[in-house]
Write a structure and sequence with these properties.
The protein is 28% helix and 4% strand. It is built from seven helices and two strands; from the N terminus they run ααααααββα. A hairpin with a 6-residue loop joins strand 1 (201-205) and strand 2.
């Protein structure tokens, strides 16, 4: 699993709203519009968490759900047991961070951008945080994991950014909430880096068929760039280091 999932803070906010609306209530109607699950009827079951379709007062509707499984609570590990430490888990601690680092370092030649959004390493990061974390870490998303100078800091920052944004109506990584200044590089395809003013570059990253547009600043971030980019090497080349 690499991308195709919402950012962790978005998932947290959605889960919190659904839990508040549905938990503890009895299902009055069940409609699973997935062919292999269409004959299953959960009417009369009590909702223990956000894994529900609706009640007489609230309705939960899912659109464009890439993966949908129906499991008994005791069997949930079959669906999520492969995931890495959850960055928004209330129990996140030093041991969680060390496990995430171990998983990231297990494939040292992989690009850091792909490694960060692989939910098997650490769960909760999507394309936005990938680009922003690489910017703050001073490396391009195409840098090898083994070449990231301070991987523990990057994992710690990932946890702190998700925690800071989990209840915000907007996602902020720069510390500024003014429109157009909340993110360092992500989505600034025709704009400039908020730190140095250099035009932000973008390129596709990911396996064939799953590529996502990735953003970086060729001045602030060191390391390789995609083959399609005229910038090769980031600040290592530009500054002769």
């Amino acid at each position: 699993m690499m991308e195709g999932v919402p950012e962790g803070d978005t998932v947290w906010q959605t889960a919190a709203r659904l839990h508040a609306a549905l938990a503890g209530n009895e299902l009055t109607r069940c409609d699973l519009r997935v062919p292999r699950l269409a004959t299953i009827d959960l009417t009369g079951r009590r909702v223990e968490s956000v894994r529900a379709c609706g009640t007489d007062a609230r309705t939960a509707v899912g659109y464009r759900l890439p993966v949908l499984d129906l499991l008994r609570t005791a069997e949930e590990v079959k669906a999520v047991g492969h995931l890495g430490p959850d960055l928004l888990d209330p129990a996140w601690n030093e041991a969680s961070a060390q496990e995430a680092l171990r998983r990231l370092r297990d494939r040292p030649d992989r690009t850091i951008g792909e490694a960060l959004v692989d939910q098997r390493n650490l769960a909760g990061l999507g394309n936005v945080y990938k680009s922003e974390l690489c910017f703050v870490g001073g490396v391009t998303p195409w840098t090898r994991v083994a070449d990231v100078p301070d991987l523990p800091r990057l994992v710690d920052l990932a946890h702190r950014l998700l925690e800071a944004n989990r209840e915000r109506p907007m996602r902020v990584t720069t510390g500024e909430t003014r429109a157009g200044r909340t993110l360092w590089v992500y989505g600034r395809k025709r704009g400039t880096c908020l730190r140095c003013g250099t035009p932000v570059r973008s390129g596709d990253q990911g396996t064939a068929g799953e590529e996502r547009v990735t953003y970086w600043c060729p001045h602030c971030q060191a390391g390789p760039a995609p083959a399609s980019s005229p910038w090769r090497g980031g600040r290592d080349v530009q500054r002769g280091r």
